[in-house]
Amino acid sequence: MTRIGGAAIALLLAASAVARPLDPRELACHDSGLFTGGIVTDICWDCLFPIRIGGLTIAGSADDVPPNANTDLVCVCNTGGLPQVGLSMGFWEPARLIELVRTPGCSPVLGGAVLPSFNPLQLGSHGDLTNRGDSSSFYHYHVWGFPLLVMLELMPLSPCMDDNAVDLDLLYLSEYDPTWSNDLLSLIVTPEAALFANPAAAAACAVDAASANAGAPLDELFWCAGSWGNLYPLGGTVTGHTSMPAVTSLLATRATAALHRRGLARRTVGDDAVCRSRIEPFLPKSQYRWSMLHPIPEANAKHVTGASTFLWGEWRNVPAIGEDAVYVLWRWQDCCLLF
Predict the structure, then answer these.
(1) Nearest CA-CA partner of 254 in 309, 179, 198, 312
(2) CA–CA distance, 331 with 310 (Å, rounded to integer)
(3) Half-sphere exposure (CA, 13 Å, Cβ side) for 64?
(4) Backbone angles phi, psi at 295, to 5 degrees
């Protein structure tokens, strides 16, 4: 995992900006506005709810709780080899930022800066709708640790939140991942993709799409991303460009699934996850919710994996200056608050 802390990022950008000409790629990389007021105005603060304590939903609707979330009143965790009793708790945590960009190294999260040392020949594309939907799109992705509740000191660190994130951290860049730019190489880590390259598996995704639009994506159909398309292959190319929100949502889901396969993302929902997160090689879709941060923030709602963009964001696209995207990834966190 590539992990660069906030201070290191600032030094890296400062060093790259000294005595150098303007990089033309910077003209195509736009600021998400996260640190110029967006962290206050563009984050869906209502999306923190519902909150479940002791198995009871005390704020928000229980319909927005994952079906396999913990419902126990109390929990027991081993600390130092000794059992310790605690109160069970579950909540939606803004855990990650995922940015989908066409320019290698472009980071809207960092104000539109272009990280150095990337090959400009890796330039992506957003496709062309005038070509009868036959064109392809390709985006790079960057995953940022975004423990907003910890950063704002609204939530203390807990043993169950075992990724130990305390600051904005750059966790993963697809520019360094050859499986993202080559679908054949991606089969090395996802050989099961060959099992779902058939009409029957594709038809099953229609069921997942219908369920996702009703607010309940099906974890059992792990090869589907609802209305956004097929999850496999876990690469950055989407054949048949539909729209920027749909394509970037699908690629953000693929990126999250790829991190699960590598053990860099884990399951945080369920009775067995209240003390520590669990390795989950397949994407637990019901564990996550999404809200767009850039180019047009989804500041009042979040949506499930696979929910049709016509319900939440087909209009969230700004030609020329807003064709890259940043999403907040909300993660349901079951936790044991030890006494």
Answers:
(1) 179
(2) 23
(3) 23
(4) -90, -25
Give the Å distances, CA to CA, from 138 to 102, 123, 125: 7, 8, 5
End-to-end C-alpha distance for the chain, whole angstroms: 34
Phi, psi dihedral angles at 309 (to 5 degrees): -65, -15
Distance CA 215, CA 188 (A): 33
The residues near 164 (Cβ < 8 Å, ≥ 6 apart) are 157
Taking the C-alpha atoms of residue 196 and residue 223, their distance in angstroms, rounded to an integer, is 7
Q: In this predicted model, what pLDDT tens digit does every residue of 260-311 receive, in sequence order?
A: 999 999 999 999 999 999 999 999 999 999 999 999 999 999 999 999 999 9
* pLDDT number for residue 60: 83
Residue 163: left (phi > 0), alpha (psi -120 to 50), or beta?
alpha
Q: Which residues pair with 332 in a beta bridge?
A: 92
Please provide the DSSP assignment of 134-181 as one string. Answer: --EEE-EEEEEE--HHHHTTSS---TTSTT---S-EEEEEGGG-HHHH
Phi–psi pair at 337, nearest 5 degrees: -85, 105
Q: Residue with structure tokens 């423990």?
A: 147
The answer to whether 268 and 332 have CB atoms below 8 angstroms apart is yes
